[in-house]
C-alpha cells in the first residue's frame, strides 16, 4: 500500500474512532457546568447473572437499550445483531487521572469493535479498541483536543482477546499514561503539553459497534479488519468487571479555570462527590447486611428495637443532605433525586415493617440497586 493511501485510510479510521464534538467544550465556552467527580470513591463492580441493570446512578446508556445489555454468568453482555446497531454506556462521573481496569472478552466477528475509553469535555481521549477479527493484537490510541490530524494508534500482542477474559488496565497520571494488558505494560506515553497529552477530567465509556458495517466509509472498514457479515451474528462483548479509581480524593467536582486545556488550570472542588456518597452507602449496607445475617434471632430482635430510633435520625439527616444536594449541578441532581426517592421509599418501607411488627432492616435485602 502506498504511503498516501495508507495515510488517507488512517485518517478515515481516525474519524470513525475519535469523538469529535462535546456538549460543552471548556476551551471554547467559559460557562460550561462543573464535571461531577468520582473523588474518593472506588467504583468496583463485578457483573453476574443476578445483576439486573447497569446502575443508572453510575452509567448512562447512550446507545442501545435494555435488550442489548444482558447479564449472564460471565458478566454484562453487550449485543449487536444488525446493520446500524451499537451499544454505548458512559459514566455519570469524571476522573482526573486514575486507574481504569476492565476484565472483558471482546466480541468475535470481522469488523466488530469492542472498546472502552476515557474522554474529556475538551476531547482529550484515551482508547482501547479490539477488532473482532484479529485474534492476536489489540489497539491502543489517544487524541488531544479531538485533533483528527494526529495518528497515535499502536497495536499490542494479546493472545485471543475474543476467546477469554483479559485484563485491560489504563494507569493515567500527570507524568505518564500506561496501557497494561494482562499485567504487562504494553505502552507508556510520557507527559507532553496540553493538546499533546490527555490531561483533563474524563468520563469512562464502553461499548460495541461495527466498523465493518456497510454504512461505514471504506477507510473505517479497512481499519476495522474488513466487512461485517451480519449473518454470523449476533456479536457479543462480555464485561466481567469494571473498576475505576479517581486519583483525586475528597473532590465533589472539577472545573476548568481557563480555556488552555492545561492540567494546571483544572480545579478540584473539595467535598464528597455524589458518586462517592452512593458507593459509600452501598458498601456500608453490604457490610451491615453481612453482619445482620450472621446474628442470632434473639440478637436481631434486640438490635431491631435500637435500630428503630437510630434509623429515624438517619432519615432526617439524609433528607437534609438531599435538600442541599438538589441545589447542585444537573448530573449531580439526577443522582441526588435517586437518593431522595430511595430514602423516601426506605421511610415507607420502615413504616410498613414497623406496622407489621417487623424491624427495619428488610430493605437491605435489595442489595443490587442504589
Ligand atoms: C456555553 O455553555 C452554556 C452552558 O452549557 C450554554 O448555555 C451556552 O449556550 C454556551 N455558550 C456558547 C457560546 O456555546
Ligand atoms: C472489588 O470487587 C471484588 C468483587 O466484588 C472484590 O473481591 C474486591 O475486593 C473489590 N476490590 C476493592 C478494592 O474494593
Ligand atoms: C492484526 O493486527 C496486526 C497489527 O495491526 C496486523 O499486523 C495483523 O495483520 C492483523 N491481523 C488480522 C487477521 O487482521
Ligand atoms: C493537530 O495535530 C497535528 C499533528 O500533530 C498538528 O500538526 C496540528 O497543529 C494540530 N492541530 C491543532 C489545531 O492543534
Ligand atoms: C489487572 O491488572 C492490573 C495491572 O496489572 C492489576 O493491578 C490488577 O490486580 C489486575 N486485576 C485482576 C482482577 O487481576
Ligand atoms: C473534604 O473537603 C471538605 C470541604 O472543603 C472539608 O471540610 C473536609 O475537611 C475535607 N475532608 C478531608 C478528609 O480532607
Ligand atoms: C445521558 O445521555 C443523554 C444522551 O446523551 C443525555 O441527554 C443525558 O443528559 C445524560 N444523562 C446524564 C445523567 O448524564
TrEMBL record:
Belongs to the glycosyl hydrolase 16 family. CRH1 subfamily. GO terms for biological process: carbohydrate metabolic process; fungal-type cell wall organization. It is found in: Membrane. Residues 45-239 form the GH16 domain. It catalyses: Random endo-hydrolysis of N-acetyl-beta-D-glucosaminide (1->4)-beta-linkages in chitin and chitodextrins. The chain crosses the membrane at residues 301-324. InterPro entries: Beta-glucanase-like (IPR000757), ConA-like_dom_sf (IPR013320), Glycosyl_Hydrlase_16 (IPR050546). Residues 1-18 form the signal peptide. It comes from Friedmanniomyces simplex. GO terms for cellular component: fungal-type cell wall; membrane. GO terms for molecular function: endochitinase activity; glycosyltransferase activity. CDD domains: GH16_fungal_CRH1_transglycosylase (cd02183). Its EC number is 3.2.1.14. It comes from the Eukaryota. This is chitinase. Keywords: Cell wall biogenesis/degradation, Glycoprotein, Glycosidase, Glycosyltransferase, Hydrolase, Membrane, Signal, Transferase, Transmembrane, Transmembrane helix. It is an enzyme of class 3 (hydrolase). Coiled coil: none annotated.
Amino acid at each position: 500500500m502506498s504511503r498516501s493511501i495508507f495515510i488517507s485510510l488512517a485518517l478515515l479510521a481516525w474519524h470513525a474512532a475519535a469523538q469529535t464534538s462535546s456538549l460543552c467544550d471548556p476551551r471554547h465556552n467559559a460557562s460550561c457546568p462543573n464535571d461531577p467527580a468520582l473523588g474518593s470513591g472506588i467504583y468496583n463492580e463485578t457483573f453476574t447473572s443476578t445483576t439486573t441493570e447497569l446502575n443508572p446512578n453510575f452509567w448512562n446508556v447512550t446507545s442501545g437499550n435494555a435488550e442489548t445489555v444482558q447479564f449472564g454468568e460471565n458478566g454484562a453482555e453487550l449485543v449487536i445483531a444488525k446493520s446500524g446497531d451499537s451499544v454505548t454506556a458512559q459514566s455519570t462521573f469524571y476522573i482526573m487521572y486514575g486507574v481504569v481496569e476492565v476484565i472483558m472478552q471482546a466480541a468475535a466477528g470481522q469488523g466488530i469493535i469492542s472498546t472502552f475509553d476515557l474522554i474529556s469535555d475538551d476531547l482529550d481521549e484515551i482508547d482501547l479498541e479490539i477488532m473482532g477479527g484479529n485474534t492476536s493484537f489489540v489497539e491502543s490510541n489517544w487524541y488531544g483536543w479531538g485533533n483528527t490530524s494526529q495518528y497515535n494508534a499502536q497495536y499490542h500482542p494479546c493472545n485471543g482477546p475474543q476467546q477469554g477474559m483479559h485484563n485491560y488496565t489504563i494507569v493515567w497520571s500527570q507524568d505518564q499514561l500506561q496501557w497494561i494488558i494482562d499485567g504487562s505494560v504494553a505502552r507508556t506515553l510520557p507527559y507532553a503539553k496540553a493538546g499533546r497529552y490527555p490531561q483533563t477530567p474524563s468520563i469512562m465509556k464502553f461499548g460495541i459497534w461495527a466498523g465493518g458495517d456497510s454504512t461505514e466509509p471504506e477507510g473505517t472498514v479497512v481499519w476495522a479488519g474488513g466487512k461485517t457479515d451480519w449473518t454470523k451474528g449476533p456479536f457479543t462483548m462480555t464485561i466481567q468487571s469494571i473498576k475505576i479509581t479517581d486519583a483525586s480524593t475528597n473532590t465533589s467536582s472539577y472545573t476548568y479555570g481557563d480555556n488552555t486545556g492545561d492540567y494546571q488550570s483544572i480545579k478540584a472542588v473539595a467535598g464528597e462527590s455524589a458518586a462517592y456518597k452512593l458507593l459509600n452507602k452501598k458498601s456500608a449496607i453490604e457490610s451491615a447486611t453481612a453482619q445482620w445475617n450472621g446474628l442470632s434471632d434473639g440478637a436481631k430482635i434486640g438490635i431491631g428495637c435500637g435500630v428503630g430510633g437510630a434509623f429515624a435520625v438517619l432519615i432526617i439527616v439524609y433528607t437534609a443532605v438531599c435538600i442541599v444536594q438538589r441545589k447542585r449541578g444537573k448530573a449531580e441532581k439526577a443522582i441526588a433525586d435517586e437518593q431522595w426517592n430511595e430514602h423516601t421509599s426506605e421511610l415507607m418501607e420502615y413504616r410498613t415493617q414497623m406496622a407489621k411488627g417487623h424491624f427495619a432492616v428488610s430493605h437491605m435485602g435489595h442489595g443490587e440497586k442504589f
